[in-house]
Amino acid sequence: MATAPAMTPVAAGADVVGVSDDVAELAGRLRIALSRLTHALRAPDDEAGLTPTRIATLSILETAGPLRVGALAERIGISPPTMTRLVDCLGELDLVRRDPDPDDQRATRVSLSAGGSALLGRLRHRGTGLLARRIAGLDDAGLVTLAASVPLLEQLAETTVAP
């Protein structure tokens, strides 16, 4: 049985036209590392019954403010009926609330409740603590390199447009 060729972090057919192979390789490695780190920091909160999608929904509501279910579904990338079920679940957990849409009394807008806001704060605090413990394990050279890299990562984050 033949084995598959080793894959580099750059996916086959990736849109890397106009950049060197070294830059494409670095981009692929960074994408994978950030994805793994993000996954670890957004690990489901089993106690509260939260999944990454539920946490992302709460985060969007915190940032964007009240939204109709359809608009929220579009931002998350799921169907409106699925978002309705998700919002119902978050409502049962007292993490969101539904209020009449001031522009259309037949519709509602979903917003983050005080409980949802407090939960996001606790999750961020937990994630920051996890990351701080990992950073504390770096040697001095690693700390210096990371400190120098953060402004560059912030710059990339500010200029990167989601697909």
Brief description of this entry?
The chain has helices at residues 21-41, 52-64, 69-76, 80-92, 114-136, 140-159, and strands spanning 96-101, 104-112. By secondary structure, it is mostly helical. A two-stranded antiparallel sheet has the order 1-2.
Fold topology:
Blueprint: H1 21-41, H2 52-64, H3 69-76, H4 80-92, E1 96-101, E2 104-112, H5 114-136, H6 140-159
Antiparallel strand pairs: 1-2
Helix pairs in contact: 3-4
Alpha-beta classification: mainly alpha
In CATH, what is the homologous superfamily?
Winged helix-like DNA-binding domain superfamily/Winged helix DNA-binding domain
* Main sheet strand line-up: 1-2
Helix-strand topology string: HHHHEEHH
Quick one: how many beta strands? Answer: 2
| Proportion in helices | 55-70%
Low-confidence stretches: 1-13
Query: How many domains in all?
Result: 1
Largest sheet, strands/sense/barrel: 2 strands, antiparallel
Kindly provide the name of the CATH class: Mainly Alpha
* Mean pLDDT, all residues: 85
The number of helical runs is: 6
Q: What portion of residues belong to β-strands?
A: 5-15%
End-to-end gap: 38 Å
Radius of gyration over all CA atoms, rounded? 20 Å
> Could you say what the CATH topology is called?
Arc Repressor Mutant, subunit A
